[in-house]
Structures
1.
Amino acid sequence: MKIKGYDCVNAEKLNRAIYGAIGPNGKPVDGVTEAATDEAKLAEYDRLGGLILKGVRKVKMGSFWDFDKRKAREAADVKLVLSDLEGNQVEVGEDEALAPELIAAENIKAKKAEARAAKVAEREAKVAERKARAEERAARRNAKTE
């Protein structure tokens, strides 16, 4: 679900952040309610450790919830977590320009993902082809026995 342009990936945690969890007496506890602001919903989801994405980039945990003060941040301090060419994680401000090394690393990562997806599609096509041939052989065998 998208909230203010951010993707909240874990639907179950988002549900808990908004509606709360069932407590020991059977009544909901925590949760910010459906009427809460989008900022409050993001902060509660962040507090629960839900994965937040901005496009395809991961948002650092604690961008909306201040874990030291144990309350929602007055203003979100959104940091994106990226990997450089060596695989080290780098935090970049949401509005900061990306260094060329980070752009190159993201491009390499995207190309690898495309290559993996192509291999998976190729394997799936081979499996489908084999399955079709096996069904064809089985149909021929059944036709001969009848």
2.
Amino acid sequence: MLKLSASTKGLRLELYNPKRYEALIIKTLTASGVRGSIHSVAGNDPNRPDADIRINGKIYNIEVKADNHAQMGGGSVGYSRSDKRFFPTGQNKDLSQVVVSVLNDLNDSSLCRGLSTLMNYLSKVSDKKFNTIPMHGFNERAWQQAVNSGMLLPINRMFSSDVNIINDHYARKNTFYMQIGSAGFFSLGNNPANLPVPPLTGKVQLEVRLAKAGKPSAGVRVQARLVTNGKSPYTLDDSESIKKMLTNVKKEQRVNKAA
């Protein structure tokens, strides 16, 4: 748990979870008079921005993360043994599509070989042949033997990618800004409001694992996690910092007009 202080109306938040931090950002933007149309926490809707800010009459979406090692969401991906390529599956298709692009670009031979070896093994002891993942209807005892023998170890691993995976993911949602607890306010690959904030830097860890579900069935799950040490001079959890940021925006606009 992270300790955070906010100056808005003397508000002090000692301990919080991600949803409480999102609520704090919305409250601080409201108190600063720059909140857009979002007035409550998004809940579990992955397609809705966490917050938004109104600048010069235009509204810009914001993704909010409680800390600099925050989860970026999870998704499912499929795999074709014949093509040796991953493809998006599941409900969170936006994130899955971005993850698929990263995994296909990595072209990790150990991962592909591990998936193929598992499919070969389950095909031999089941009543059907498996050429793609997700897989359905395999022998459950054979699955447990594969787990016990370490056959999933080449599959259940962690990969790293640069922050472009985040930029691409949120660009699909028309979101180009991120607020991170203890780190501040950043742009994501683009800066449509021309704010004096730095671009997000760092890396993304992709936690890949083959997970078994009912029926029986199994699919590849990927969890993305942000890792950054970047610091911004501005933060949206402090109304004074918001005021300073917008004052500098107005100064820059006056300079540009004079030029």
3.
Amino acid sequence: MVRVGRIGLGLALGFIGVGCTTARETILECPAPDNAHIAVFFREYGGGAAGFQDEFVEVRRRGKADPVRILRLKHGYDIVLTWLSPMSLQIAYPDTARVDHWQDWFDFGYQGTDLKWWKTSLKTLPSKDGSFSNGEQTRCVR
């Protein structure tokens, strides 16, 4: 009886995992003014019938695969990435979106003996159902 129960549990857990893959779609890449780094707006989605989707912004060194995720949204389908300087990024997002994570300061390590800190700031724009409603569009400003 115990053996049959374990087999049934194993099969059930196996079926739960089927169809629960995650996909990633890059929506916008925005190089910094000095072209040393790139801010990327993307979405991750999946989960079959129940489904999920989150939107993210990350910054990575050009040509490297070491991103720092600085923003995670729910229902934020548009974004404006504005580089205020090579080390300062403003992120405008729909005011109807929910911010689940925001990292306002982050670093990419040392440059010589100096630790380089980056600054991000957030700005909301009028929206409806997660998309801009004031004529604004997803874009990159350098």
